[in-house]
Amino acid sequence: MKDKFTVIISDVNGSKHYTISQIIKKLIFYILFIVVLILVAGALYIKFLVKEVENISKRKVVYEQRNTQLVKQNSKLFSRIRTLNSEIKKKEEELAGINNKIADLEDVMGIRNDDNETLGSRIDILKINTIQRRLFFANIPNGSPVPFNGITAKFGWRIHPILKKQEYHPGLDMRAKAGEKVVAPADGIIEFAGYHKKSGYGNLIILDHNLGFKTLYAHLSKVLVTKGQFVKKGQAIGLVGNTGLSTGYHLHYGVMYLQKFLNPYYFVKWDSKNFDYIFEKERKVQWQSLIKAIQNQIQLLSQQVQK
Q1: What is the DSSP string of 14-74?
Q2: What are the pLDDT digits (tens) for 271-284?
């Protein structure tokens, strides 16, 4: 045969004849097979890479969304922190203003309390008339805000009945029936009336009295007054309840003087029959200054009436 070479391969099994054209065909076949295999493998790998890129793109979108949410949350937190700092600064300024006003009032009236004052001189000041006593009971918390049926938790340190940890209890838990009326123990203006989430007090009323006193009423079932409302001594302001962190129906009653909590029990037990009781029990209040302030108020009113 022309243009063909015959290759004879002999072994123990015999001889095999191959032509050059057959070898070239097989070589071309194998080359094509390898090329196709490489192309298929490359196509599959490219498809895999494309899918990975898509997955990475999707994850990138998710991460970007999360990042945006975190940025918004951080912005809100920083804004809240700034607001709280501003509120704290404002409260500090208000407290400083109250202290300055009291100090100025004492200076003007000449009623600064002397730390070396004797008990005898205090007793002399307590010799005040009926009108002055009425002003005391109208302006300073006295008596029980609910019918007195006992105390379930005293003022001071205790183990919280729900949180099970030691904490300072800044008031009295007074035993009372569900829906029982809570009355104002003195004249005042409602500073807060509504649900107080952060403190655990539930429905809360804060009543701002004269001469630096405030009272708190917590866990109410219903609030009967509004912020800014003036209330008289004996007026119903709320109903006993079990809202907030509470284990049962009762009234949490707190008394404050110049932003400091006092033992409310002394004020609950104070009435016209034992007028001197509060001055003997509660020594954190500058009673001499308050007595002189009320006496001066009466004197000024008397002078105005005479004119």
Answers
A1: EEEEEEHHHHHHHHHHHHHHHHHHHHHHHHHHHHHHHHHHHHHHHHHHHHHHHHHHHHHHH
A2: 988 888 998 899 88
Residue-range definition of the domain harbouring residue 64: 19-97
CB of 217 within 8 A of CB of 251? yes
Q: Are residues 81 and 132 in the same domain?
A: no
* DSSP letter for each residue of 63-90: HHHHHHHHHHHHHHHHHHHHHHHHHHHH
Give the start-end residues of each E strand in 221-249: 222-223, 230-231, 236-239
Report H helices in 181-286: 264-268, 277-281
Q: Are residues 127 and 23 in the same domain?
A: no
Among 97, 124, 159, the domain boundary falls at 97
A 10 A CB-CB count for 221 gives 17
pTM reported for the whole predicted model: 0.58
Pick the last residue of a domain from 69, 97, 125. Answer: 97
* 269: helix, strand or coil: coil
Reduced 3-state DSSP string for 154-207: CCEEEECCCCCCEEEECCEEEECCCCCEEECCCCEEEEEEEEECCCCCEEEEEE
CATH number of the domain at 267, please. Answer: 2.70.70.10
